[in-house]
Amino acid sequence: MVKAEGAKNLALICKEKQVKLIHISTDYVLDKEKGYLTTDLPNPINQYGMSKLAGENYIKDVLEKYFIIRTSWLYSEFGHNFYRTILNKAQTEKVFYITDEQTGCPTNANNLAKYILNLIASQNTEYGIYHFTDGKAMSWYDFAKKDS
Q1: Which residues, including other chains, have CB under 8 Å from residue 79's CB and lie 6 or more apart?
Q2: Could you tell me where the DSSP H helices lie in the chain?
Q3: Which residues make beta-bridge pairs with 21?
Q4: Tell me, what's the pLDDT at 33?
Q5: Within a 10 A sphere around the Cβ of 147, how many other Cβ atoms?
Q6: Tens of pLDDT along 74-116?
Q7: How far is CA 128 from CA 23, 75, 148, in A?
Q8: CATH number, residue 50
Q9: What are phi and psi of 25, to 5 degrees?
Q10: Is the CB of residue 62 less than 8 Å from the CB of residue 92?
Q11: pLDDT in the model for residue 39
Q12: Which of 3, 12, 23, 78 could cross-link with 51 by S-S, CB 3.0 to 4.6 Å?
């Protein structure tokens, strides 16, 4: 599991260099039917979630000073993500279909970056797992039509 091994390697380097680790994880480590609290027991919903959870566990085993930030449906104006895909489809296709059967909390990468910067600036020493999203749950369909 590449994501797990990558997190493990980062944790080992951070331990060696005595630095804190801020690791971005995912809500895919949680069972979507049972909750979203940081205290909820993980129950990954797919292979990706299992790999990310294994990475989280490596970090917790190796380090004392870490922040694991779980987020969901990350998007921005850059890179490959749902937001950009829909913008491109809207410009090139007259008709396209988007599911309304999957829900989540879209999170703008800029907002996540601000959250992380505030976490650093605050010199927070309450290490552990945090959740950050833009807070409003919606379907992919609702997200696609938002601000249209």
Answers
A1: none
A2: 2-17, 47-62, 82-92, 109-121, 140-145
A3: 66
A4: 67
A5: 5
A6: 888 888 877 777 777 777 877 777 777 777 888 999 999 999 9
A7: 10, 24, 38
A8: 3.40.50.720
A9: -120, -160
A10: no
A11: 80
A12: 3
- For the cut 60, the answer to whether the pLDDT of residue 148 exceeds it is no
**Is 141 tagged catalytic?**
no
Q: Domain range for residue 77? A: 2-145
Pairing of β 103-104 and β 138-139: antiparallel
Which residue in the block uniquely carries the two structure tokens 């749950």? Answer: 137
Say how many C-beta atoms besides its own lie within 10 A of residue 108's C-beta: 16
Structure token pair of residue 30: 């949680």
Q: Which of 48, 115, 127, 141 is catalytic?
A: 48
d(CA 90, CA 92): 6
Entry field: residues in the chain: 148
Question: How many domains in the chain?
Answer: 1
Residue 42 CA to its chain's centroid (Å): 14
